[in-house]
Specification:
Shape: globular
Strand order of the largest sheet: 1-2-3
Helix content: 25-40%
Structural class: mainly alpha
Distance between the termini: 22 Å
Order of helices and strands: HEHEHEH
Oligomer: single chain
């Protein structure tokens, strides 16, 4: 409705491939995203951190909101959240993901990165099919 077109990727590799094909203005990354089809991310090396690092290296990389959906010890959680911020996360939302917190983080992305207006100039026309994973 507001020029927002969501894309869903089920693995870090799918998401990175998608980001290379489609203009992305923001990314929502689950910290526990698996790297590929063959297995889940380990608690020591979450695929979401890998994806965040790759997106950060892209020219004009999208701001990323990281969502933690797993239960970690307080020590692990603090280490992972610090690492996400170090790798360029715009914001981190902790477990359980709260819709209001997510919407507030997206609003901050729009306000700070796009001066209060969601960019629509790079989106394909509505009648063009979405390039799905």
């Amino acid at each position: 409705a507001h020029g927002v077109r969501p894309y869903v990727a089920h693995t870090g590799r799918e998401a990175f491939d998608l980001a290379g094909r489609v203009p992305m203005h923001a990314a929502l990354i689950d910290l526990a995203t698996p790297l590929g089809e063959s297995g889940a991310a380990s608690s020591d090396h979450p695929g979401g951190l890998w994806l965040l690092e790759l997106l950060r290296r892209m020219p004009d990389h999208p701001p990323a909101v990281v969502i933690n959906t797993r239960a970690y010890s307080q020590r692990q959680l603090q280490r992972l959240l610090n690492e996400a911020l170090r790798r360029g996360a715009f914001s981190v939302i902790n477990r359980p993901p709260d819709l209001e917190a997510l919407l507030a983080a997206i609003q901050r992305v729009v306000d700070r990165r796009y001066h209060g207006h969601w960019p629509t100039q790079d989106l394909p026309p509505d009648d063009e099919p979405w390039p799905g994973p």
